[in-house]
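Minutes, project check-in

Agenda point 3 was the complex the collaborators sent over. CS summarized: three entities, 576 residues total, and the question is how they sit relative to each other. Sequences were read into the notes so everyone works from the same version.
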Amino acid sequence: MRIAVAAGAGDGGELRPLDEDGSPAGPAYAVADLAGEIAARERADAPRWVWASSARLYPRLLRAGVRVARCHDLELVENLLLGHAGRYGEPRSVRAAWARLHGLPVPPDPPPSQEAPAHAAQASLFGDDDGERAAPSDDLGQVVEVHAAQQRAVAGLDGFALLAAAESAGSLVAAELGHDGLPWSAAEHDALLTELLGPRPSGGLRPRRLQELADRIGAAFGPRTHVNPDSPAQILKAFAAAGLPIPSTRAHVLKRVDHPAVPLLLEYKELARLHAAHGWAWLDTWVRGGRFRPEYVVGGVVSGRWATNGGGALQIPRVLRRAVVADPGWCLVVADAAQLEPRVLAALAGDRAFADAAAHGDLYEALSDAFRSDEATGGLSARAKAKLALLSAMYGGGTGEAVQLLGVLKSRFPDAFEYVEAAARAGERGRLVRSLLGRTCPPPSAGWRELTLAADDEGDPPDPSAAEGVRRPATAAQALRSRGRFTRNFVVQATAADWALALLGSLRRRLTALGPPRLVFFQHDEVIVHAPAELADAVTEAVRASAEEARRLLFGATPVAFPMEIAVVDRYADAK
DNA sequence: GAGGGAGGCGCG
DNA sequence: AAAGCGCGCCTCCCTC
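CS then shared the predicted structure for the full assembly.
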């Protein structure tokens, strides 16, 4: 059973029961308390809720204490359908979708980010929690019509029903992650910063440790020399003046330079980044009541990975993991899909030998026999060679010694090799590639087509569009290779995202059955569940069962295993 | 003073 | 030793 929902401008809204195919199964009706009505119908029927956008609607329900099991997120599904049709980036709102159905002018999507938590404090000045109440109310007729059209479209595309359901489940998870928050100890965070940087400085001053390093860096270049270590340009100049010209100030470049300033600079860079990106200012902005509440953006990455809006939740430095601490009597179940992308390739390609190697344990170790005899890459262990070959195949690398290793991969695991090669060739021809469930890569830009059509053999002209200021490959050959690397990687990364989404949906359902445990973190191939300590084993089992369910949903009877590395800990830093 | 590109680095 | 894919977000520094 499905129920379409249109949120009103205030607390009310309109609803209408639907059949699976989207046709109305009863009359529309209005209610004054939408959250209350949804709670009641959820208890009675647990329908699949059909609404414009979980990101806009569901936080309001969560604040009212209402959780739902299933939904159909029209904006996210519209986005998937548009992408599949090669119309990536067209407006995805219900209004826009409805206009397209009727051949009417399509309104642009409202600019994102107005509902970001960072702006919530500002918005509340105007009596507005996070902007959703100010949004114009949904039109129930449009919701019903767009949903029916989507159901027809989805039914005609292989895998898409699962993709739409998984993306929608993801939208519920994302809102719940933002609502529940990651347990975060401000005291631990502050202690770590103080340990590494010195006490919190007042004003905009550098912390003591950074100032010391900055002074010593200047002194290393000469008496009374002043170099701002935050300025790559000044650092380059200082090294040039010292007779050591360097192409950039990246850490790996500096490491090869013999100069007393180098170790100081490397330490400065590391600490300065921690201070700037995750220092006291971050703590003040993002942590409230012992929780870090990032805003996840489902489908924020073309491959189907999630992005976040502010707070950098997907880039939390490893040193800060000691600030992620379970509540007393609770634990963190930290679970990580081991070697997910090469396993996905193994399952996708149906390469018998490769899939057998991926059937259990350490995939790279299992493959390493094939690379043991390779002489070309001296120092590396056979396992390291196997890993390098795989990464090169999936990322489109393969310069230098990796060329040799790719040759081994090609001869020993031809189907796996061919799978990514075919994706690369498709990309170079300007074609679209898709994940297993049908998520589709964006088409190449007009500039790419122009460049690659204009000069399709060697001797490419310099890029005439450079004047536009857009960073572009200089030659057609570069553009082609770049696009090939993108599509080559897309098929693997996007199918890994399919799998992760299926995992999340399954795990969410199992955790709901357990009661108190909550998903509190998700990062591409890793989840954290916050649970009462006595439920740790049950949660661990739920994670394993979910990984297995995701494998079966995507790949059926593949021999490829998707093992989870799971740790039950008090703090995130103690996992692996 | 805002805006944005470049350089750099955090995560997977 | 580094590189090949996908991101967000910091500071610097230049342009408008």
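Noted in discussion: Residues 232-233, 248-251, 269-270, 273-274, 277-278, 305, 312-318, 340-341, 469, 471, 493, 496, 523-526 of chain A lie near DNA strand B (CB under 10 Å from a C1').
Follow-up: revisit at the next meeting once the mutant set is ready.
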